[in-house]
Amino acid sequence: MLYNHFKQFKIFAHTYVLLAYRRARVDDPCGYMLFVWECFMMRAPIILSSSLNFASIPSIVAERIIATFFSSKYEKFGKNMAVIFIIIEVIFGIGAFAFIFGDFTLPYSKRVHHCPKAWPDRATRISMVLGLHALIDFISILVIPVLLYRFHRNKIHVNLSDRYQITENINSLRTLLRMFTFHSLFRGLHLVAVSMFFAFRLKSSVGNAIYLEGAQLTPLYALTLPIAIVWTEKHVRKTAQENCRKAMELKGSEAANHYFTIFERPAGKNA
């Protein structure tokens, strides 16, 4: 939700700039140069939303880890943990933003022809923060298959009550794994594309400007998230119905063998 609000503010900021410069003289290239504070107004929502967003996936993964290994305590203090994770996410997001722009002053009279060139001394910091975002997303995605593998190894060795809890965790992790992989793939492309501009200190040119602004459109993949959620729910429901149908057709030892085969099956084949 915070991400969408900041994206809306970014749209308003770009709309303001377009309206402000719609009467700029074509024969005066300097008329199209932006003030540094205008660049800050357009770029700050992007960086702040990205900083807040990068802590969300690790928070969800940490929540699943706690729910896995401390299930009894998690049932009692689940809401408190959710509040703590939200606070940590906000602190990390604002901290990353402050690391880039904490001691930055806006020279109101200065103009630039390309917004990324408004902060030449911040290039290293920006590339470090964006690279850290991509690394954390990548590590978080790798943790989920490890948890799934651990669940499937321990599932048949616990009682029915714990087995039900493990089944619920496995279903949630399967759903999260698909969503996180989809999210991190496109987000990673966006982070790498933007960080390369600052890391290699590319020169200002029309091609680089198109490249950078095009990379900023990558987060629009979030609009397809509802489709991914609906597809995942249908796939999980269809798999559950198919397993129930097969179990009802079997009798005696065949039904028991089929039951344990499902539990012992690797996560990828039973998803």
Automatic annotation (TrEMBL):
It is a multi-pass membrane protein. One of its GO terms (cellular component) is membrane. It is found in: Membrane. This is Serpentine Receptor, class T. Keywords: Membrane, Transmembrane, Transmembrane helix. Its main location: membrane. It comes from the Eukaryota. It holds the Pfam family 7TM_GPCR_Srab. The chain crosses the membrane at residues 81-101, 126-149, 184-202, 214-232.
